[in-house]
Design a protein that fits this description.
elongated; disordered N terminus; mainly alpha; 70% helix; 2 strands; 3 helices
């Protein structure tokens, strides 16, 4: 089952990706769909699944891409909080 997917499941290319070329195309597709910045992490995840299980599905990659996106948003939020706190500290010093 695809988590948080708002489109139709038939929009996803079907099948199991068994080599790096197919995996690279799937990663590019998901990067555009979800907007992750760290596509290398998704590629490495898929490559490890191919090495260990002889293939990876787009659903597995999609779930991992959502997890990567969540981690990226967490990092951005922490960075924003730190920068906000720095600017508040500077303001109080004045």
């Amino acid at each position: 089952m695809l988590l948080e997917y708002e489109g139709e499941p038939e929009d996803f290319p079907k099948g199991i990706y068994e080599d790096e070329t197919e995996l690279d195309e799937a990663v590019d597709y998901l990067q555009e769909l979800i907007g992750i910045q760290n596509d290398r992490a998704l590629f490495n995840y898929g490559k490890s699944r191919i090495d260990d299980f002889w293939g990876v599905t787009l659903e597995e990659l999609y779930s991992e891409a959502l997890e990567i996106k969540r981690r990226e948003e967490d990092v951005e939020e922490l960075f924003f909080r730190r920068e906000t706190r720095k600017s508040q500290d500077t303001w109080f010093k004045l």
